[in-house]
Amino acid sequence: MSRVTQLRKTGNIHTGWQLVKNRKTIWCMLKDVWRGNYKMSGLSKWLLLAGIAYVLLPLDFDWVPFIGWVDDAFVIVLLVKRLQKEAHRYVRAKVMGRKVHY
To answer: In angstroms, rounded to a whole number, what is the distance separating the alpha carbons of residues 40 and 22?
Structure first.
Protein backbone atom coordinates (compact mmCIF):
# COMPACT_ATOMS: atom_id res chain seq x y z
CA MET A 1 0.00 0.00 0.00
CA SER A 2 2.84 2.41 0.71
CA ARG A 3 4.15 2.02 -2.83
CA VAL A 4 0.83 3.15 -4.24
CA THR A 5 0.88 6.22 -2.02
CA GLN A 6 4.45 7.01 -3.04
CA LEU A 7 3.55 6.69 -6.71
CA ARG A 8 0.65 9.06 -6.26
CA LYS A 9 2.89 11.62 -4.60
CA THR A 10 5.44 11.45 -7.38
CA GLY A 11 2.59 11.63 -9.90
CA ASN A 12 1.45 14.91 -8.34
CA ILE A 13 4.98 16.25 -8.47
CA HIS A 14 5.22 15.12 -12.08
CA THR A 15 1.94 16.90 -12.90
CA GLY A 16 3.18 20.14 -11.38
CA TRP A 17 6.51 19.84 -13.14
CA GLN A 18 4.76 19.27 -16.50
CA LEU A 19 2.82 22.47 -15.94
CA VAL A 20 6.05 24.37 -15.28
CA LYS A 21 7.63 22.84 -18.37
CA ASN A 22 4.57 23.79 -20.43
CA ARG A 23 4.42 27.36 -19.20
CA LYS A 24 4.60 28.58 -22.80
CA THR A 25 1.42 26.63 -23.57
CA ILE A 26 -0.28 28.17 -20.53
CA TRP A 27 0.82 31.64 -21.61
CA CYS A 28 -0.50 31.07 -25.16
CA MET A 29 -3.76 29.75 -23.71
CA LEU A 30 -4.19 32.85 -21.53
CA LYS A 31 -3.44 35.13 -24.50
CA ASP A 32 -6.01 33.29 -26.63
CA VAL A 33 -8.57 33.58 -23.83
CA TRP A 34 -7.91 37.31 -23.63
CA ARG A 35 -8.20 37.73 -27.42
CA GLY A 36 -11.36 35.64 -27.62
CA ASN A 37 -9.83 32.82 -29.69
CA TYR A 38 -10.38 30.29 -26.91
CA LYS A 39 -13.04 30.20 -24.26
CA MET A 40 -12.02 28.64 -20.99
CA SER A 41 -14.74 26.77 -19.13
CA GLY A 42 -16.70 28.88 -16.67
CA LEU A 43 -15.83 26.57 -13.80
CA SER A 44 -12.12 26.96 -14.54
CA LYS A 45 -12.39 30.75 -14.67
CA TRP A 46 -14.20 30.99 -11.37
CA LEU A 47 -11.98 28.49 -9.60
CA LEU A 48 -8.82 30.20 -10.80
CA LEU A 49 -10.05 33.65 -9.77
CA ALA A 50 -11.27 32.42 -6.39
CA GLY A 51 -8.06 30.47 -5.77
CA ILE A 52 -5.80 33.40 -6.63
CA ALA A 53 -7.88 35.71 -4.44
CA TYR A 54 -7.74 33.22 -1.57
CA VAL A 55 -3.97 32.93 -1.74
CA LEU A 56 -3.32 36.67 -2.10
CA LEU A 57 -5.84 38.06 0.37
CA PRO A 58 -4.93 37.76 4.06
CA LEU A 59 -8.50 36.93 5.12
CA ASP A 60 -7.96 33.23 5.79
CA PHE A 61 -5.66 31.50 8.29
CA ASP A 62 -2.55 33.49 7.35
CA TRP A 63 -2.29 34.86 10.85
CA VAL A 64 -1.55 31.33 12.09
CA PRO A 65 1.97 30.64 10.72
CA PHE A 66 1.93 26.96 9.79
CA ILE A 67 -1.78 26.47 9.11
CA GLY A 68 -1.89 29.54 6.88
CA TRP A 69 0.92 28.22 4.71
CA VAL A 70 -0.54 24.73 4.46
CA ASP A 71 -3.98 25.86 3.35
CA ASP A 72 -2.47 28.22 0.76
CA ALA A 73 -0.28 25.40 -0.54
CA PHE A 74 -3.33 23.14 -0.83
CA VAL A 75 -5.18 25.77 -2.85
CA ILE A 76 -2.14 26.22 -5.12
CA VAL A 77 -2.02 22.46 -5.75
CA LEU A 78 -5.69 22.51 -6.73
CA LEU A 79 -5.06 25.48 -9.05
CA VAL A 80 -2.17 23.66 -10.72
CA LYS A 81 -4.33 20.59 -11.31
CA ARG A 82 -7.10 22.73 -12.80
CA LEU A 83 -4.66 24.53 -15.08
CA GLN A 84 -3.27 21.18 -16.16
CA LYS A 85 -6.73 19.98 -17.22
CA GLU A 86 -7.48 23.23 -19.00
CA ALA A 87 -4.12 23.10 -20.81
CA HIS A 88 -4.91 19.60 -22.09
CA ARG A 89 -8.27 20.84 -23.32
CA TYR A 90 -6.59 23.83 -25.00
CA VAL A 91 -4.03 21.64 -26.78
CA ARG A 92 -6.78 19.33 -28.03
CA ALA A 93 -8.70 22.31 -29.38
CA LYS A 94 -5.59 23.68 -31.10
CA VAL A 95 -4.81 20.33 -32.70
CA MET A 96 -8.35 20.06 -33.99
CA GLY A 97 -8.13 23.65 -35.25
CA ARG A 98 -11.35 24.99 -33.84
CA LYS A 99 -12.67 27.50 -31.37
CA VAL A 100 -13.93 25.93 -28.21
CA HIS A 101 -16.84 27.60 -26.43
CA TYR A 102 -18.43 26.39 -23.25
So the answer is: 17
pLDDT at 25: 85
Domain with 56 in it: 2-96
Other residues' Cβ atoms within 10 Å of the Cβ of residue 79: 19
CA pair distance 93, 58, nearest whole angstrom? 37
- Whether 101 maps to a domain, the answer reads no
Number of domains, the chain = 1
Q: Collapsing DSSP states into helix, strand and coil, what is residue 1? A: coil
Is residue 29 a part of any domain in this protein?
A: yes
- Spell out the alpha helix ranges (H) of the chain: 2-21, 23-35, 42-56, 65-96
Residue 89 has pLDDT above 80, yes or no: yes
Q: HSE of 91 in the Cβ direction (CA atoms, 13 Å)? A: 12
In a domain, residue 57? The reply is: yes
